[in-house]
Structures are given as C-alpha cells and as structure tokens.
Backbone:
C-alpha cells in the first residue's frame, strides 16, 4: 500500500525546514536506514532516513523548497506496480488534542486566585499530645537521637548512614549510642562522599528501605543536591506514582558560630521551593522529636534542617510515643497587635522580641511554622486577620526567602486586612564573614525584630 | 574484525538463539518506529534511540533472575523492552499519553516499572550509578542474592559520582554489575577526545573491582561475560565491571545530525558488525532456521510494533487533574 512520507520534525522545536536535497530519485528502491533526503533545520542539516522499504514513487516537494511545514507530505513510497495515487489514507494528524491542554489553561483551572472574600485553609487545632503526658527536660540533640532509636526499634527497614555517624558517635553526637544498639548493618559510616552516598541512599529508598541520610552539615549537601532534587524528589511524579523515595536527609543547617562563609548557610528557602520534598525545621526538642519520627514514617523524601546552636538547648519533652504532623504550625504565644512568624533558630529572636515588646505594651503573637513544606497557611492567615500586622524572621538570605513567600501569600489572600506592609527580617545579603563583629552584624537580631514591629505598629 | 563471523561459543540452543534474535529485532523495529513517530511530531522533546546497541541489554538480561534490578540513563527504551515491559506502555509514554508507564508524565527519559524491577530512565548523566548501587545495597541489607544491573555510558564514566560509587560498592561488597555501554561517543565527543585512558574497565582496579572488556556486538559474548559477572556478585564478592564495546547507529538524540563521524564509519559497523545480522547468519548457517522462519518472526515483530504505535496514538492524553497527582505519596 502506498504511503506518504511526511516532512519530519528533527528537533524538539522544529516547525518547518528546508528540503535541501533529494538523495533518492523517483523510481529508486529504498531500504530501511537509507538516506533519502537532506533537510535543513534551524540548527543543522539532517539526513532523513527511510523507515520502510519500497519504491520512491513520487516526490511531492522539490529540493530547494524552503519553509516546508512539519507533517507536509513530501513524497510517496510504495511497492512495485503501485502509483502515487494509491495513497491509502490521509497523513496521520498530529496530536490535535495538544492545543487544548495548554499549561496556562491547566493552571487557571487548578489554582484559582482567592477572590476578595478570604478563604482560610482549615487549621488543625488539636493538641500535639495529651495535656497530662509526663514531661522531661531533654536537649534537642537527645530528642533527635531518641526519635531515630525509637523508629529503628519499630521498623527494621530504617537505617542511618553518613559521615562519622557510627564509631565516632556523630560529628555533633546526634547519633550517640545508635551503633551500640543497632550494629554496623544499620548504623553505617560512609566515606566523605556526599554526592555518592546521597545517591546510594536514594537508590536504597527506591527499593523500599527507609534511609536516614545524615549530612555532617547541610553545607556539604550542595555536593549532593542533584540526587536530592532530581532523583529523590521527582521520581514519584516521573514514575506516575509507581515508586518514590521514603527517606530523610537530616543534619545541622545555617550558621553556627565563627565558621565562615562556606559553613554558615541556611537552606530553608532552597529546599522549600521543590515540589516532591517535605521540609521540617524545628525549634524545640519536643517538636524535633515528634517531627523526626513523623519524617521517618513519611513515604516521601524529607529534608530535616537542624541547628548546631540549638542541639544543646533543653526543652520539655513528653514521655510518650507521639509524632507531630507536618503542615501544623505551633502558636507559642498569643497576641493581638502583631504576628511574628518564624521557624528553627529564628524562633529565639521572635520569642525574645515578644518578651521585650510586652514590656512596651505591644502584644505579639508568635507562630513557629515547624514545617516549611507543607506550610500551615491557615494559622498564619487567621493570625494576620486578627493582628493586621506581620513580621517574619529567619536567618537565611533575603532574596527569595521564606519571608518573601509569606509576604506574597498574605498580600494575595488578606490584603484588605493589612494595616502595614509585611516586613521580612532575614540574614544580610552577604556571604557570612568570619570576624566576630561582622558575623553578628550579618545575622538577624532581636533588636531588628523589635524595630520592625515598631515600624508596622507605627510606634 | 571479520564480517559476520560465527559466534566463538556456538554452545547455545536453537531456542535461545531465536529468542535473542526476536528480542533484538523488537528493540530495533520499536526504535525505528519511535524515530518515525518523532518525525511526525507525535513524540516530543528528547528521544535517544538504542539502534545498534541491542545485543548489550539482550545478552545481559539473559543472565538475570527474578528480583534482579536494572537502572540506566535516558537511552532506555531497549532496556525496558528487554526486561519484558509492555511495548504499548513504553510507546504511549513516548507520546505522552495516559496509557504510558508514567501516565505520560515521565516521557522518553523517565520511565519505570516496579513490577519488572526497572528503576528508570534517568536524565542526569551518571546519576543512575549511585542509585543502582543503592538498589544493590538494599539486596545486601535484605540478605538476598539479587544483583543490580547498573548501566551507564562512556560519557558518564567521566562523572565523579561514578568513582564515589565504585569506592563504596567495593568497600561494602555490593552486588552490582556496572555495565559501561561504550558506544564510542559522549554525545558528539569521541572517546579519545574526552577520556584520558581508553580502557574504562580498568578503572575499577584502583578500588579492587574486577573488570573486563566485552564485544557488545555479539550477544553471546555479552551473555557469557554477564554470567561471570553475576556469579561474582551473587557469591558475595562485590561489584563487577563490564565495559561493553558497542555502537549507536543514530545520532545522540533525534536532533543530532552526527557530523562528528563519517557516514562510512557508521556504514562499516552496520555492514560488518551488526548484532542482529550476526545472530541471523548463525541461525541460517547452523540450519536452526530458514529464511521463511525468520520472515515470520519479522512479521510478528512488525505487528507488535505497529500495535504499540497505534496504542500510543489512540491512548488519550492524561486528564488535566494528573498535573497535581503523584507529587506526594500518602502514608499507608
């Protein structure tokens, strides 16, 4: 049966091209793989090969023709004795449906902008744990270790890998005692090879294990960020839901003290930008424990951002088996004049500022986001609609910060409730300096938070 | 290299040989059809064809057992067909349709099958190497004797994470066969212009990983090497490297005019070393099959591929709400 040869698309962007030369002539017999024409695209001259065997019955577009649209019939191929008029069917149509499925169309349907009336996302106000649970002062470091140990006892598929996690007992002693209890099959010292072990951990997670990959600090995870994002975060989507990476990447994040530019960066905003990842950044020991246990049980890749300065801080931790759900902020302090939103170590500036503001008669509500993806938008909106003012606090860089995102969200969803612009208190727009005085200047401070609150409350 | 040489080890059954012929031919015809659909605009973006390299995956799959995993780069159609994935589902993923293995959300470079233990389909050169070692890590953790076939190219072999992985795989004795498909070109850069030492299989020596070079245009040679490598891994001796010397007839991707090599070089390979023609001659000269038998197989394969093409055109595009599914897994 004679068939039409169509002008081929020879690159992802080609819409038309020049039929530079016919290598085969009418009447020639051609085999699969034979070059029959040369076609110029916007990038190169490509050889056009026959896919089927047969006789080139008729050339429909002469050589030298420019601007030949993709899918235009350019020749007819068939068997001996056939003629060009025997073409059985019109050229197969290009996926016509493609037109209807423009990304813009999809976005409009799926994510409508909020109308003037504010629709506050639902808020989970159940207590994190029963009020009568016994509490015990525990450091963040111990709470994290206990979370891992409890989950490893409960699930044999959970294991820890990273630099110095086993025999050294953790560079920051977070994994202390785990090797003794669980052995070297489940508490694994890796070489200094972040890209490699992040990939091995992700592969093990694809196969159904539940790795906890410790980075000595998240600064070193930049070596591994391709595996975290391109492999761990995207595979569930790329596989149509068949397989993903049930795992935790954890370690200290942000500035410690006097460790310079390469060891002092907050990655909260980076990882929070990525669909497919979940991101937690706890402040208290109770939250650190409950969130890490939830992270280990979560079937998705979780970025768990800890802080070296907070490791040694003690907080009351309930002496029961509990988890903290992702996407549920914690209101540390209720107030009526301004909403302070923070997470991780930023909370210490927020809470200090709230104490001092109270002395000046300003009542600040303090929200600890606890997780940045998913993010508890409902709690923020409810609070801002009450206080009409908001200041965000974080240690990360100012451009593209979590505070920027929250400002945009509040503006889009509760603009009419704002009595002042939202102010973002962040680290400064500089690499972290080493000198003690400059380092102090580079970080966000309680004084800056107080100044911002006074600005939005017009005091 | 003698033209159409008989296999060095003719100790293979007729049925096996016919099976390899059929599987290699399926890959070739499938890829030719994919190229055709690309030209018609039905397949978009990047599309990397496997034509010429068929003996590599078919030879290695012949040594796999239930539960073994495989993972590779973006030149992945052959691997999927060779491990038994449905041609309809693969082709429909190429056309971005609901019937594709990833419901149209992955495309040519990103396809997976949990059922067939095929772990992708990875678009970042070399990234699949630590991932493949991670699959092997899971085998060792679970104490089974499964092997991870981790495929990468001569181009990937210059990525740093490959050597990070060699180190850990050897240190922890992970059951992984590193299959380096050396098709001589990293996109448009010939191996001699990119690689300081041409014998890539020797690069495991520094880590204590044995390696060997294999004729990748001879399916029986690949299978023999694969048997040795998998036996090594299953015995708990750690990883093994096979550098399989092969050749891709087409460009790096559909949009590559391949001006970095001569037409004659490609033609010579096709005429003298074609892996499918090699098996075909073995079947005919050994009187294992007649021309008519082989024609019947060709016809069968053509029907399978045509059906896949039809399915891939008729399967609808994914529903619009698929945009927001499969981003997060729900807790079970």
Residues:
């Amino acid at each position: 049966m004679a068939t039409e040869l169509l002008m081929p698309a020879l690159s992802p962007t080609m819409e038309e091209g020049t039929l530079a030369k016919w290598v085969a002539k009418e009447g020639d017999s051609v085999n699969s793989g034979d070059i029959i024409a040369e076609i110029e695209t916007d990038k190169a001259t490509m050889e056009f090969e026959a896919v089927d065997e047969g006789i080139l019955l008729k050339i429909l577009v002469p050589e030298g023709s420019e601007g030949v649209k993709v899918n235009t019939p350019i020749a007819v191929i068939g068997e001996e004795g056939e003629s060009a008029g025997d073409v059985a069917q019109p050229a197969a149509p290009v996926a016509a449906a493609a037109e209807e499925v423009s990304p813009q169309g999809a976005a409009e349907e799926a994510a409508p902008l909020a109308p003037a009336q504010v629709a506050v996302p639902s808020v989970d106000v159940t207590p994190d744990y029963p009020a009568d649970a016994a509490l015990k002062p525990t450091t963040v470091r111990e709470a994290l270790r206990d979370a891992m140990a409890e989950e490893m006892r409960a699930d044999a598929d959970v294991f820890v890998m990273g630099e110095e996690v086993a025999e050294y007992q953790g560079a920051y002693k977070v994994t202390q005692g785990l090797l003794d209890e669980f052995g070297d099959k489940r508490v694994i010292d890796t070489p200094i090879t972040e890209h490699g072990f992040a990939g091995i951990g992700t592969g093990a997670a694809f196969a159904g294990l539940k790795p906890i990959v410790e980075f000595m600090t998240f600064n070193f995870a930049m070596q591994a960020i391709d595996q975290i994002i391109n492999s761990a975060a995207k595979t569930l989507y790329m596989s149509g839901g068949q397989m993903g990476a049930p795992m935790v990447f954890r370690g200290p994040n942000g500035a410690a003290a006097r460790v310079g530019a390469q060891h002092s960066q907050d990655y909260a905003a980076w990882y929070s930008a990525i669909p497919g990842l979940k991101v937690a950044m706890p402040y208290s020991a109770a939250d650190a424990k409950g969130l890490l246990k939830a992270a280990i049980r979560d079937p998705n890749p979780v970025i768990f951002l800890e802080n070296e300065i907070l490791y040694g801080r003690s907080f009351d931790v309930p002496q029961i088996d509990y988890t903290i759900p992702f996407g549920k902020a914690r209101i540390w302090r209720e107030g009526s004049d301004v909403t302070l939103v923070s997470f991780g170590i930023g909370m210490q500036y927020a809470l200090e500022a709230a104490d001092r503001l109270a002395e000046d008669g300003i009542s600040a509500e303090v929200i600890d986001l606890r997780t940045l993806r998913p993010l508890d938008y409902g709690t923020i909106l409810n609070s801002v609609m009450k206080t009409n003012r908001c200041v965000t606090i974080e240690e990360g860089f100012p451009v593209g910060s979590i505070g920027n995102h929250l400002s945009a969200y509040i503006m889009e969803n509760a603009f009419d409730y704002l009595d002042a612009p939202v102010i973002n208190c962040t680290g400064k727009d500089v690499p972290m300096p080493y000198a003690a005085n400059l380092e102090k200047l580079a970080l966000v401070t309680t004084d800056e938070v107080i100044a911002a609150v006074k600005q939005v409350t017009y005091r | 290299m003698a033209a159409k040489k008989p296999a060095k080890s003719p100790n293979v059954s007729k049925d096996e040989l016919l099976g390899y012929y059929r599987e290699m031919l399926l890959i070739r015809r499938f890829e030719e059809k994919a190229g055709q659909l690309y030209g018609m605009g039905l397949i978009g973006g990047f599309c990397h064809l496997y034509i010429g390299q068929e003996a590599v995956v078919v030879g290695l799959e012949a040594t796999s057992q239930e539960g073994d995993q495989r993972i590779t780069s973006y030149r992945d159609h052959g691997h999927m067909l060779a491990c038994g994935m449905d041609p309809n589902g693969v082709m429909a993923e190429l056309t971005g349709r609901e019937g594709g293995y990833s419901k149209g959300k992955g495309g040519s470079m990103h396809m997976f099958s949990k059922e067939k233990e095929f772990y992708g389909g990875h678009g970042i050169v070399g990234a699949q190497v630590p991932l493949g070692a991670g699959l092997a890590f899971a085998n060792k953790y679970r104490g089974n004797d499964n092997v991870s076939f981790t495929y990468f190219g001569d181009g990937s072999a210059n990525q740093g994470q490959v050597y990070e992985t060699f180190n850990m795989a050897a240190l922890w004795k992970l059951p992984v066969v590193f299959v380096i498909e050396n098709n001589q070109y990293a996109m448009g850069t010939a191996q001699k212009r990119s690689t300081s030492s041409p014998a890539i299989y020797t690069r495991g020596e520094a880590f204590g990983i044995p390696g060997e070079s294999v004729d990748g245009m001879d399916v029986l040679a690949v299978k023999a090497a694969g048997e040795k490598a998998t036996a090594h891994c299953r015995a708990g001796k750690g990883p093994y490297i096979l550098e399989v010397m092969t050749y891709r007839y087409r460009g790096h991707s559909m949009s590559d005019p391949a001006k970095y090599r001569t037409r004659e070089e490609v033609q010579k390979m096709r005429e003298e070393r074609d892996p499918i023609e090699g098996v075909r001659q073995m079947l005919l000269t050994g009187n294992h099959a007649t021309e008519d038998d082989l024609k019947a197989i060709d016809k069968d394969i053509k029907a399978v591929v045509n059906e896949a093409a039809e399915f891939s055109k008729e399967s609808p595009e994914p529903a619009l709400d698929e945009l927001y599914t499969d981003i997060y897994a729900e807790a079970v």
